[in-house]
Write a structure and sequence with these properties.
Number of strands: 12
Structural class: alpha/beta
Helix content: 40-55%
Order of helices and strands: EHEHEEEHEHEHEEEEHEHHH
Largest sheet: 8 strands, mixed
Radius of gyration: 17 Å
Length: 237
Amino acid sequence: MIAAEDTLKVGVIGMGPVGQILAVHLKEAGCDVAVCDRDKDKMSLIRKDGVRLEGKIKKATHFNCAYTSARELAAQNPDLIILAVKVHHSDSVIEELLEVDNKTMRLMCAQNGIDVEEKLVESFGEQRSFRMVLNFAGNLMAPNVVNVTFFNAPNYVASIDDSQEIFSSRFAGLLSKVNLDTVMVNSFSLVSKVWEKTILNSSLSALCGISKLTVREIMEQPGMAEIIEQVIEEAFN
């Protein structure tokens, strides 16, 4: 049983595979979770039927609070807001969040790419900004159903300026308690993890393009893990 003082009030913006996977696990961990996506039809379905995970992770849950604007979600004064939107949507989401900024909520980037967290830092400052490196993936089988294709544990989370390591550790612990293993690291280590993930994605995208296989199918090929490791090592050297 997870104690109430160990939980958080969390908002997840972006109900693609990443956002849905995180939201389901945070709800299971006992957090008060609100979800948000601009797709009104998707959010109507999530309000009615909840979210279901299938494939490598099988879980389902409902959410009491589901919004179609970041402004509405931020008005609920969550402890933490997680951005799981496409990077090109970040500016408009941040603009909405700034309209109701209570100066205490924390912001976390759960997006792929180099320096994608900088938009949060510019708007909310380093002390309130966090970044995750996610090592799971999935695809939408329906607007509210995610096929989780793999989870190569762990995920990583860090405070941008290392001033919020206690909060980072608390957040990582919540996800780990529900088997979405997540490790708190310092900001220096996180940079390495970001580059590893970026190189991995670049390598897999090229291989998928050549072979016409999915990422999951590529990773299941004999000896492919060793090839990818060599590519990452060569890129770092």
